[in-house]
Amino acid sequence: MKIKQIPQDFIVKEIIDIPKLKKDGEYTYFWLEKTNWTTTRALEKIARLCKTSRKRFNFSGTKDKNALTKQVCCAWKVSPETLKSINLKDIKIKVIGKGNEKINLGSHEKNNFKITIRDLTSEEIPKIKQDIIFPNYFGLQRFGSSGNSHKIGILILKGTFQKAAKEILTNLGEKNKEAAKFVKENWGSWKKIIKIIPPYLSPEKSIVNHLIKTPTDFAGSIRTLHKKIRMLFVSAVQSYIFNLTLSELIKENLDYAEIKFLDTKLALPTLESQKDIPKDFINKEIELAGFDATLNKTSAKILKSLDLKPDDFKSKRMPELARKGDKRIAFIKTKINASKPKSDELNKNKKKITLSFDLPKGAYATTLINIIFYKNIKTML
Q1: Alpha-carbon span 100 to 29, nearest angstrom
Q2: Around Cβ 239, how many Cβ atoms within 10 Å?
Q3: What is the rounded average pLDDT for all residues in the chain?
């Protein structure tokens, strides 16, 4: 089984109400269509070409790098003509118009997915029911390309910023293992380190550039990262705790298989267990960790195992990152349209199928794929 063999196999389009358009509006709204770019880095590059600050650009939801994605963004006091002039590989910009409302995180209602699953034998294609209930796990994308965003978040919440910087700079992804090793072995030699970090790792380079100027100001180096990136680190801690809590709930109530997830395992309900999922699970909510959260016993136990307390989410050293408790639905019900199996032109003698469905914002399509194909996978997609 293969997903995302080519970007066109994983198509995501945001479903969003565009703010009211006004000719003299301060914000320019535009569709951002991309492949091979994260949302953040795409906007950083666009801002640079517009000769303005990245802080002028906003979006509703982060979208996969290895996919064909379409989402609405806005730019403050950047003209439509300037945006139309941008020419970047794997990026298309379509200006919608101007208005006075900013696009914020979570502004969209849901996402539409069209996903092609490849490299299947006839026996591996499951009987897909139109209605499927699945656990609302946070997907691996939530934890960064190196899968360590929650670890960075924990260190930030504890106020140990040198360790947080080290966690970032010594985990640079699969392509940059040698560079990460160099950083670890030459920690503190910032002028040497800046030379070996690839140019496309601009957030990491900003940390090192700050440390070249002020070698002991690790808190300041972390602050060079865009606030949204730093907030994602803290959110990843909440997500990690939520996933482990939901996994325990599944173990207590349903038949399940276990799959690898970061440094642990998660319980995945089998497709056959759909009939056993209690109706009240669909609307059941689990509280996310935060400084005013009322956690259930499982979440509280997990929080303690991470050597954290609810008050740590006040993030006293970086109060702009403080997170209250919130709630997230434990299970989601959705309708799936599945194509008939076809010959897979990319994998000899194999089949492919295409699944189409809508999910509310914050829900991960890869988790749904995990449920449908749980017999063919060993790790979280």
Answers
A1: 10
A2: 23
A3: 94
